[in-house]
Write a structure and sequence with these properties.
Distance between the termini: 32 Å
CATH architecture: 3-Layer(aba) Sandwich
Order of helices and strands: HHEHEHEHEHEHHEEE
Structural class: alpha/beta
Number of domains: 1
Shape: globular
Helix content: 25-40%
Strand content: 25-35%
CATH topology: Rossmann fold
CATH superfamily: Vaccinia Virus protein VP39
CATH class: Alpha Beta
Length: 235
């Protein structure tokens, strides 16, 4: 990792330690596997990805990147967690996933190298783990082609989100490993929208993600008070 990379070494270590469990659907990553079809369908409904160049920023073990490639996109997944990337590459080989590649590089470095190269850029569940989320948003805007789409998902910052996403998910329901999230790094939709607007992105879509612990079911609706996704278009 380079000194200029917008990454928290402790966050990278956390996800690297869990790397071997990325594709175990009953592991700590079960929620990601469960919400993946929901967020993939939401993205594809807005921006059809078949035959398009797609970038997944903060791809981790490749759950979303792999799924987008199977929908017909040519996908590049980038991350700074070496072990998670190795898991993603191994899974692509084992599953014989077509048109997916992975690179260990930051969004900012790739933006300098390949500006305006992608039709669609996704950055899901990552902004709340980096020191400077606005820098990642700016890089995503630089990476997408004019008229292209950028999608973010993250966690709102409010008392309800603290109770649901940290106390509930990590300590009561054990949906996520304890310490996965740090409340101070949560981002309000208005803050994310402002970062994006300053980077030349226009907000077009908002969606909330809900979970029922009794039925263990996830669904999308308009409630962005905890987990939410925003879709933007580059002018």
């Amino acid at each position: 990792m380079h000194a200029t990379d917008n990454a928290d070494p402790a966050e990278l270590a956390k996800f690297s330690d869990l790397a071997h469990r990325w594709w175990d659907t009953e592991s700590e990553f079960r929620p990601l596997h469960q919400i993946n079809p929901l967020r993939l369908n939401w993205i594809v409904d807005i921006a059809p990805i078949e035959g398009k160049q797609v970038l997944d920023v903060g791809c981790g073990g490749g759950i979303l990147a792999d799924a987008m490639a199977r929908r017909g996109a040519s996908v590049l997944g980038i991350d700074l967690a070496t072990k998670a990337l190795k898991v993603a590459q191994l899974h692509a080989l084992e599953a014989q996933t077509p048109r997916v590649q992975y690179r260990e590089i930051s969004a900012e470095a790739l933006a300098a190298e390949q500006p305006a190269s992608f039709d669609v850029v996704t950055c899901m569940e990552m902004l709340e783990h980096v020191p400077d989320p606005s820098s990642v948003v700016r890089a995503c805007s630089q990476l997408v082609k004019p008229g292209g789409h950028v999608f973010f998902s993250t966690l709102n910052r409010n008392p309800k989100s603290f109770v649901f996403a940290i106390v509930g998910a990590e300590y009561v329901l054990n949906l996520l490993p304890k310490g996965t999230h740090e409340y101070a790094k949560f981002i309000k939709p208005s803050e994310l929208a402002q970062y994006a607007r300053q980077a030349g992105l226009e907000l077009q879509h908002t969606k909330g993600l809900q979970y029922n612990p009794l039925t263990r079911r996830y669904w999308l609706n308009s409630d962005t008070s905890v987990n939410y996704m925003l879709g933007f278009q580059k002018a």
